[in-house]
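Local shape tokens

___
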Amino acid sequence: MAKLMMLEPYQLLLGGVVAIAFLTVGLTVGVSNALGRNILKPRQFTCQPVIEPQTGDLMWTVFHQGQGQPQPWLQMVPGMEGDVSPKSRCEQVAQRLDSLVPQQLRALTYQPNPATPEREAICALTQTKGGPCTTLLILKPETDPTQFFADLTLPLRRWGEGMQLETANQVPLDLQPLLEPASP
């Protein structure tokens, strides 16, 4: 007669722990793929509401987390295409910038939107991705792209001036000097 093998309680517990570990890893990888970024790695770009000193208006602003305190980079100003709240748009831009860090984010610029050439797009240039830049925002048709870009990047340019970097009216706006301190 065949002898049945009985598992000890510790063997059952060990098997359960291994199954939970595999499930956790699988869910982490799945969520990371769904979000387009590694959720185990801290975000470099986040959104925060900021009170504009001159007007007192609440401005949703993309912040970059370098080695020190988070630094304001881009403020969500009127003139963007779509019916999305400034907070949601800020989160979208921060997520896109986060996804471009591994591709060596290097500059911001504006250019005609390839899908709708009568509209301008604010986009990011990377070191590793050749060709057209990655669209961050599309502007409404009547929006002046030069003024919009200046208003959008005002916090970034102020921060760059504080570091004695040449950031005034640059297009494309070189981000490498601002990102280098955060590099390992």
Summary: Strands lie at 45-51, 58-64, 71-75, 105-112, 120-126, 134-138, 173-174. Helices lie at 9-35, 86-100, 145-152, 154-162, 176-179. The chain has a mean pLDDT of 82.
